[in-house]
Amino acid sequence: MLAFAHRGGAYHPEIEGLENTLQAFAHAVGLGYSYLETDVHVTSDGVLLAFHDTVLDRVTDRTGAIATSTYAEVQRARINGSDPVPTLAELFDEFPDARFNIDVKAPGAVPALAAFLAEREAWDRVCVGSFSGRRLREFRRLTGGRVVTSASPGEVAAYRLLPSAVARVVTRGRPRVLQVPHRAARITIVTPGLVRRAHRAGVQVHVWTVDDAAEMRVLLERGVDGLMTDRTDVLKDVLHETGRWRA
């Protein structure tokens, strides 16, 4: 059972307002989390940032799009008025024993991330996903299959609708994991059948973003392999209760 600190545990009461900061990730590691989730964007001068939004406006004291800002400009921003926006390099250096689940949120981040992983030979430290099938295809091409990737929306649909053997053929065995919400609108995505089909194909199922203890227990009973949460305290407690916590 993999426990992911989503944005470092964005809604843990002790660090609320400090999502995706070094302080938040350090807090999660201190709780015993070794799987950290972040999105990545790239500045106009090519620096990879561990940051969720396309713009600085929501969580920092500055405004502007990441893609059109230089790293020097982003460095002046403060999350919650106190913490700088970290680079992906800073996360890798600060937490050398951690594994990272990375969502590529912008086209320019794809080649930058591929080059970053190649420079550090860090292909085994990450799982990379994206809502964009195009960005995933480009990333897989640039990394030559050396990096574990999650399924694109189209690949998820294959596992949702087709027998496992057919889904594996349709997706060419490229996704190693389905990273999906429990529900989308009125549709339940993570059904017992989906989990069974994925497992028959050797594919894991990770669910995001789950902050409610009762919902966590339901998903654990369905046999999911990982949960991403903003409430790192709640997930840790549930995994302790069910004998699944492993720091």
Automatic annotation (TrEMBL):
<dbReference type="GO" id="GO:0006629">
    <property type="term" value="P:lipid metabolic process"/>
</dbReference>
<feature type="domain" description="GP-PDE">
    <location>
        <begin position="1"/>
        <end position="239"/>
    </location>
</feature>
<dbReference type="Pfam" id="PF03009">
    <property type="entry name" value="GDPD"/>
</dbReference>
<dbReference type="GO" id="GO:0008081">
    <property type="term" value="F:phosphoric diester hydrolase activity"/>
</dbReference>
<dbReference type="InterPro" id="IPR017946">
    <property type="entry name" value="PLC-like_Pdiesterase_TIM-brl"/>
</dbReference>
<protein>
    <submittedName>
        <fullName>Glycerophosphodiester phosphodiesterase</fullName>
    </submittedName>
</protein>
<dbReference type="InterPro" id="IPR030395">
    <property type="entry name" value="GP_PDE_dom"/>
</dbReference>
